[in-house]
Amino acid sequence: MAPNNLTFIGSHFERFVQGQPDCSGGDTPPADPSASKLKCLEFTLPSNFTAPAYDSSPNSAFYSFLTFTDQSDACKGSDIVSRWQDVYGRNVSQAAPFFLDLLSNNTGTSAHFIESISIEFWVDSTNSSNVIKPAAGPIRRGGPGSSSCNINWISTATQIVSDYVLAYKNPICGVNAPKLIDNSTQTRELLAVAYYSTGAVVSFMGEPTSVLSDAYGLKNTSIIVKSVSDSKFDLFVTSDVSSPTADNSCVYEYLAADRSVTVRDFTLQSYDLGSLPVSNLTTPADGCISEFNTTNLGVYTFANLSDACGSPTDGRARLGRYFSVPISFSFHYLDIADGIFNITVSEDSPERRRDGNTATFVFFDKSFIPTTTTSTIAPTSTVVSTFASSSTVKASSSIQSTTAQTASGSSVIPTTAVAGATTAATPTGYVVPTGYGAPTGYGGPTGYGAPTGYGGPTAYGAPAANNIYKGASAGKVGIVSALVVAFVFAL
Q1: Which whole number is the average pLDDT over 358-366?
Q2: Which of 23, 322, 368, 456 could be 149's S-S partner, Cβ–Cβ 3.0 to 4.6 Å?
Q3: Distance CA 101, CA 139 (A)
Q4: Residue 6 near residue 51, CB atoms below 8 Å
């Protein structure tokens, strides 16, 4: 059956790079392209055109409307297939199905503004012309001799609907900003990951922005949402809603959860065993939890692969080794550079009491400080030696002797100079710019780059038993809501 044609509103599109590799499966999936090569895949679509919303053919009429932004000699090819083959260095199978999925919104007219695009295709694993078509049946990643690639684009004309993570050392507060009342760990965990949805509606783990204004003892009208780019926004908590400035506000900067944000290498900074009954067989100084890396939000893999430590993706078993009772646990971010595991006995309530019956393990990404000392955990010590500022390492009260030593990395939300704010949402109707040139100032701070030595795990799904934080869009692939699931719009 021929695909249905719809009228679309296009704009400029740039690659959105998710935490997991672009291609997987097969014998030798291609490596992810360099940043310069990714520029070859940026394109524009006309402000008004008609094409299929979904098509499994690389010859779809949709692709004929693409105009690639970079026409330099560094980018080879004038059509989507030749561009892919140049960028990924592999032959693309035109026999295997292509999957074109669009996420768009209905603006009340017959034309649909395209927010994001996802395309799945197959490449030969050896760069020969003999690409083996996947066997008939349910589509799965990879296949005999081939790899499946799924790549995403987002419109630079609007704010991406996504999870966002609080930037390091945020908020930044002016001298006349309101003062923060609630700086508890629970509040910091709640504010660390925000979800931005259409119409500039921001939420925190399903809670409205009032959780932020409550932390300052202010009305929700004191919170102002300001779009900075397609992948960055600020929340102003201001004392002057008519004229919010850096001087009279505390500004929280949030970054879309792309690879530069979600791929992190965390090192154990400190721990507090509280009064939980501890094991007499081992301690957190055994090195099993000294480091872990993340790919997507809440998807972690511990670095120590020793059989004695257990599965590198089973946080419950690995952290449970330090206690003599069954545990429940959760993982939260404090900001882009800091994460925390909270441990309670499994019989505790879902509210995860934050008292002496809770143990905590705080981790920090050392790439966010200019220079660091080598961090090691002595085999027989409860001390964690780390970086720059100071916090205390606390052992359980059931351990006879404890040692405190400076450790650092946790950014602390300022307790002075914080302001009140009001909500000023961006327009709900999208206005597509007449010029589709890509913004030049949308890059995140240079310190947010993924670690150069990152080697991602081969499996990116967290075990079902892991009670880990997955953000407001739990169950969604990547960061774009339903990006690779279907073409979503309101007729």
Answers
A1: 95
A2: 23
A3: 15
A4: yes
